[in-house]
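Bench notes, afternoon.
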Amino acid sequence: QVQLVESGGGLVHAGGSLRLSCAASGSRFGINAMGWYRQAPGKQRELVADINNGGSTNYADSVKGRFTVSRDYAKNTVYLQMNSVKPEDTAVYYCNARTIWGQDYWGQGAQVTVSS
């Protein structure tokens, strides 16, 4: 089992910045990628960004150029730096870890609210 603990959510004004962190613990063997998803009210959960063990990243079109995903492999932590945030970025952000066998683990979620 992998446990994911998120931190860093909160309220931010449009145009501001926020950084989310997610620390993984437990049986981390086999984790191939870590990243972030989000779910806004009434919408499906969507990928925001992820990064694999080789350092390759993948971003949703809506956040390209504004958000940056990174990993500290020594600390088993993934980060999401959110710059130039917009009201439409308001959502619950979930940390994700995916194993080489395709199993997904999820954090508890962190609320991010962007005021206009």
